[in-house]
Amino acid sequence: MDGDSEDGISCCLSPFYVYYIINHLKFRVFIHETKIREKPYYGIVGFEVAPCSIKREADAMSKLNMYDRITPSNCTITRDERQEIEANRRVTFTDEVDIIQSKKAVPVGSIL
Fold first, then answer.
1. Which of 16, 52, 86, 104 could be disulfide-bonded to 75 (CB atoms 3.0-4.6 Å)?
2. 57, exposed or middle or buried, with CB in 10 Å at 0-12, 13-18, 19+?
3. Looking at the predicted structure, is the pLDDT value of residue 49 above 60?
4. Distance CA 59, CA 38 (A)
């Protein structure tokens, strides 16, 4: 392979394999509430990031507004539901954030 291609990706892909793109990130942010003088303070006590490949129709996604809801994902999807890398195909990138109340305490001095 000489590295030249019109689409910018075919130079690096093998015709014998299927490649998928990570186009969705699922964030889980764990927070803990602490009250100081009856005023609530929240601290982040942990987070997780799950990278996923989700097939979405780019034309349908382009019609959505910035804060429109999309179908959430648990990132355990079948091969048919993943976004395959294809020449000249638009890809949509999405994310979702879950805020989860945690019982884990935060030292008081670290939130002020």
1. 52
2. exposed
3. yes
4. 49
3-class state of residue 81 by DSSP: helix
Q: Which is more confident, 93 or 79?
A: 93
How many CB atoms sit inside 10 A of residue 24's CB? 21
By residue count, the chain amounts to 112
Mean of the pLDDT values across residues 47-66? 88
From 80, 85, 95, 104, select the one nearest 15 (Cα to Cα). Answer: 85
Three-state secondary structure call for residue 41: strand
pTM of the model: 0.69
Instruction: Give residues with Cβ within 8 angstroms of 89, minimum separation 6.
Output: 58
